[in-house]
Amino acid sequence: MKNTINLYRNAFPASQKRASALTIGNFDGVHLGHQRLLAHVVHVAEQKQLTPSVMTFLPHPREYFAFREQRPELAPTRISSLRDKITALARAGIEQVFLNRFNTAFASLSAEQFIEDILVNRLNTKWLYVGNDFRFAHKRSGNITLLREAGAHFGFEVETLEDVLDEHKLRYSSTELRNALAFGDLERAKSYLGRPYEISGHVIHGKKLGRTIGYPTLNIRAMPRCALRSGIYVVSVKGLDGQILPGIASLGVRPTVESDGKVLLEVHILDKTVSAYGKLINVAFLHYVRDEEKFPDLPTMIDAIRHDESIARHYFSVHGL
Question: Domain end: 112, 143, 161, which one?
Fold first, then answer.
């Protein structure tokens, strides 16, 4: 499996010389349903000597329309950052990603413009894989029938996919994954992802309060509207010293010490002091401990942190890393 990937942002290459086996979607989380779909794209690309490719969007189209209509509550939360999405797509064998800014200009494209200008002229699509109910272009005017007619004219095949079902015959769904994360249900989220839920990021400088109370933390900016419930979690950390390290983490706005409302991920590594500023680390969420709280004073907060630490130590004594 290849782990390198070409990412084209906004302006697609004027002439995409490598013929594409393409699928289109948001792929938030790259859950098991997505992974099976992507495996089929990779398989067909190998058979037809094409490049396995994905077109995706930033922001999510639903997010764009929610904010345009001034209904931000309708915008979906984000399961994965762009970095984590691209990493997961590369892990699945995708070799090129076309990232399009979903904006007024893109939303205004006619179905014919989308097909000829983007699929044919820009992306050199020779095989396209989309859902039976796939709709595209201005006012969702494009459909599978139009794609098949265009494919016959321009020389690309269209294959439609059925819903990918889990062992209970239920459809894999990013919405259900978001629901699991919103409740801090990490086992359910893992069953959708095939792996623990993870967030990656570069370690940034914080206020260094943790080190003054005996709990130094690695700080990572969380993506806006992160799908995971704010709270305290048992975690493991990769990206430091070539090993997996045990930790306890807080995801939230730190109401006891801050009032700016910005979401931060703070990770305390157990029994190890590391210098990690600027390093890219990956945090896997293993066990939900409790909700974020606002404490009346620092001593009360420190007592709670000690209790959280004891829960983490017990978790690792039972489950290991």
Answer: 161
